[in-house]
Write a sequence for this structure.
């Protein structure tokens, strides 16, 4: 971009902003100064940077690091909007940062970058993308799997989205098999435990929802739960097959949180069914 | 108090422009954060003052509040819409509202003062420094400093303007440089005018600016030594001996002010300084009551002083 013209950025923060713009442009970002990220956003960051297929970056440049109430308001707005972008503070290497500020930034998923006089920008705290974060419903009856699911959510939110989702698929697959085995042991399925052990996830779902394979034609999984489990199983393709292009990769990534929540909900429903066996 | 021509309205902050006659306002981060927090909590309680300009509005008062409103993405701000002032009235209003002059860079302020001078002259009124100070609320010395800048060659004025647009910590050439060089130039013109028969005043300024920008002059206050050299007579030195050294300083890019000062008047100024101090000390000592107990530290210091004085006087004999 041409020499940026600042209207309401304090002058101490302008030199930091100029250096950040140069660094971001070198990474292929297009930067705009002092532009709101939404008509009702409560704060206008110094810079917004966009790059194709990447979350938008909102950066507040400061000479002295302060996580102000206005910035917190923007952070809360971004999270309530499930914004596909990040919020960071970028400051100079001479700035002093209070330990409390560091704690608050980490807690709120707000990033912190430091600009050196030579223009190099180093990321001290990586910001989180609200659109890619999940929060568990605390009322889900996850039984003995609660701790494991919580751990997967933490793993997901901290950035290892594919790994967490893959583990959740395996967990749900295992819980479906255990449900089928228990149903077989308790005489609710006409299949033997050996037959259950030899079947795959899809067969387990079908058997548990089939009037022909359930004793007295009383299905263990209702049709909606069956469909949801199949849908969840099908979405395994999101991670098992590489995306054909970057655009598809971003599209898939945006589906991950929804699938993560779906998986947790299905585990809860399987647990409820198991308790009623 | 608003007149009947003024109205209080809620206006989109994006429809307001800063006042073109307001020299660049420096808004510090800490101030802005404090005001942002306050406005974020309770909103804008004191309306801005604006006047209408076609379909938009121009700020008269409240630039900080307006900037915060933009930063906070406020939908509207309260503003008193007043009639559009005349140019002179507008500039003088800017001067008087922004009473904390340290917020303004001196060069843009000087240019505004020139506008005021021109407009006053157009109305047949006096535009002397004293009148300007009275009208703008600036101190007389600030007005004089600003007017001094208007005498600089245009390229230096342009340089200062472009520097003023940068944040303070990025400014390499500041107004103080030219103020100090001008003082040195005035002293030379007054006490050693022969210098300017050898070199021109422009050459004098150019050479000193070059010495400063190349790091040969460590600080703008170093130029004060040129004034001291020009006033060599005060220290008991011959001004005629100083003249070729000042000319050499201007002509030779490698000569430093410190060198020139050493070659000419440093010893004389030091002698004058010592004489003043010695006289003061002698007077103090004469007031000391010898019968009262004297602190051992003072006795020790006086003995050391006596030995130094004896050493100097012996070599003189």
């Amino acid at each position: 971009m041409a020499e940026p013209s600042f209207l309401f950025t304090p002058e101490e923060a302008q030199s930091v902003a100029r250096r950040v713009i140069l660094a971001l442009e070198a990474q292929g970002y297009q930067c705009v100064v002092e532009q709101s990220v939404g008509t009702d956003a409560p704060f206008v960051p110094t810079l917004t940077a966009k790059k194709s297929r990447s979350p938008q970056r909102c950066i507040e440049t400061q000479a002295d690091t302060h996580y102000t109430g206005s910035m917190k308001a923007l952070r809360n707005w971004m999270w309530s909007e499930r914004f596909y972008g990040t919020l960071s503070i970028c400051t100079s290497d001479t700035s002093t940062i209070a330990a409390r500020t560091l704690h608050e930034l980490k807690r709120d998923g707000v990033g912190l970058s430091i600009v050196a006089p030579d223009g190099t920008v180093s990321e001290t705290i990586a910001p989180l993308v609200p659109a890619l974060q999940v929060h568990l419903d605390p009322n889900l009856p996850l039984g003995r799997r609660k701790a494991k699911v919580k751990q997967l959510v933490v793993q997901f939110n901290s950035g290892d989205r594919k790994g967490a989702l893959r583990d959740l698929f395996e967990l749900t697959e295992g819980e479906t098999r255990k449900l089928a085995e228990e149903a077989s042991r308790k005489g609710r399925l006409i299949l033997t435990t050996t037959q259950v052990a030899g079947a795959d996830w899809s067969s387990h779902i079908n058997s548990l929802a089939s009037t022909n394979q359930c004793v007295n034609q009383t299905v263990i999984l209702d049709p909606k739960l069956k469909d949801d489990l199949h849908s969840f199983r099908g979405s395994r393709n999101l991670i098992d097959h590489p995306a054909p292009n970057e655009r598809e990769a971003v599209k898939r990534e945006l589906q991950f949180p929804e699938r993560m929540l779906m998986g947790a909900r299905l585990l809860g429903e399987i647990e409820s069914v198991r308790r009623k066996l | 108090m608003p007149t009947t021509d003024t109205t209080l309205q809620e206006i989109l902050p994006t429809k307001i422009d800063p006042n073109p006659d307001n020299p660049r306002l420096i808004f510090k981060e800490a101030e802005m954060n404090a005001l942002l927090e306050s406005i974020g909590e309770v909103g804008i309680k004191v309306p801005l003052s604006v006047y209408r300009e076609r379909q938009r509005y121009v700020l008269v008062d409240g630039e900080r509040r307006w900037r915060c409103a933009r930063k906070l993405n406020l939908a509207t701000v309260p503003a008193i819409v007043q009639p559009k002032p005349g140019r002179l009235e507008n500039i003088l209003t800017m001067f008087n509202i922004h009473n904390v002059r340290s917020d303004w860079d001196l060069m843009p302020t000087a240019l505004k003062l020139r506008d005021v001078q021109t407009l006053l002259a157009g109305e047949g009124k006096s535009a002397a420094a004293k009148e300007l100070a009275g009208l703008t609320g600036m101190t007389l010395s600030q007005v004089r400093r600003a007017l001094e800048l208007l005498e600089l060659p245009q390229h230096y004025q342009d340089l200062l303007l472009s520097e003023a647009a940068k944040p303070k910590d990025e400014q390499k050439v500041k107004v103080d440089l030219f103020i100090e060089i001008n003082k040195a130039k005035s002293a030379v013109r007054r006490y050693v005018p022969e210098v300017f028969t050898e070199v021109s005043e422009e050459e004098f300024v150019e050479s000193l600016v070059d010495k400063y920008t190349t790091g040969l002059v460590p600080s703008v206050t170093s130029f004060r030594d040129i004034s001291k050299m020009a006033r060599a007579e005060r220290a008991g030195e011959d001004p005629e001996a100083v003249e070729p050294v000042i000319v050499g300083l201007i002509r030779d890019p490698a000569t430093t002010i410190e060198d020139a000062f050493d070659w000419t008047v440093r010893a004389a100024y030091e002698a004058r300084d010592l004489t003043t101090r010695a006289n003061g000390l002698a007077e103090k000592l004469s007031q000391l009551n010898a019968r009262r107990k004297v602190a051992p530290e003072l006795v020790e210091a006086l003995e050391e002083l006596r030995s130094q004085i004896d050493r100097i006087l012996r070599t003189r004999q």
Remarks:
- The mean pLDDT of chain B is 88.
